[in-house]
Specification:
The protein contains no helices and 11 strands. By secondary structure, it is mostly beta strands. The strands form 2 sheets. Strands 2, 4, 5, 6, 9, 10 and 11 form a 7-stranded mixed sheet that branches.
C-alpha cells in the first residue's frame, strides 16, 4: 500500500492551498484517512480525519478554515486549507488506517505518506 501526498507549497498568510493524498496497492480496506502535521521541533499533531462513513473531525485551531474530503471512495482524500496562518507552517502527512487482508488472515494496519511541506509567510 502506498500513499502519495501532494499540493504543498509557499503561500502568503490568508491564502489557500489544497493537499491531496492518493492510496494505491494492496488489499487494504480503509476505515479512516487523516492529515497530520509536524512543525520543526514539535511533535506530529492530528489535523483532520474523515472516516469511511463520512464523519469528520478537526483540531481546534483549524476548524472553520480547513476541510477534509474524499473522492473515489477512500482512495483520494483532500485537505482544503483556507485563511492560512504562519503557524500552519509544517510538513503535512497523510495517514490511512484500516484492515490489511492476507491470504489467510487480516490485520489492522496504518500507512503514512511521504509528507508535503506547507510554508505560510507573514
Amino acid at each position: 500500500v502506498q500513499l502519495q501526498a501532494s499540493g504543498g507549497g509557499l503561500v502568503q498568510a490568508g491564502g489557500s492551498l489544497r493537499l491531496s493524498c492518493t492510496v494505491s496497492g494492496g488489499d487494504f480496506s480503509i476505515n479512516a484517512m487523516s492529515w497530520y502535521r509536524q512543525a520543526p521541533g514539535n511533535q506530529r499533531d492530528l489535523v483532520a480525519t474523515i472516516t469511511s462513513s463520512g464523519m469528520t473531525n478537526y483540531m481546534a485551531s483549524v476548524k472553520g478554515r480547513f476541510t477534509i474530503s474524499r473522492d473515489n471512495g477512500m482512495n483520494l482524500v483532500s485537505l482544503q486549507m483556507n485563511s492560512l496562518k504562519p503557524e500552519d507552517t509544517a510538513v503535512y502527512y497523510c495517514n490511512a488506517r484500516g484492515i490489511q487482508r492476507h491470504s489467510d488472515y487480516a490485520e489492522s494496519k496504518q500507512y503514512w505518506g511521504q509528507g508535503t511541506l506547507v510554508t505560510v509567510s507573514s
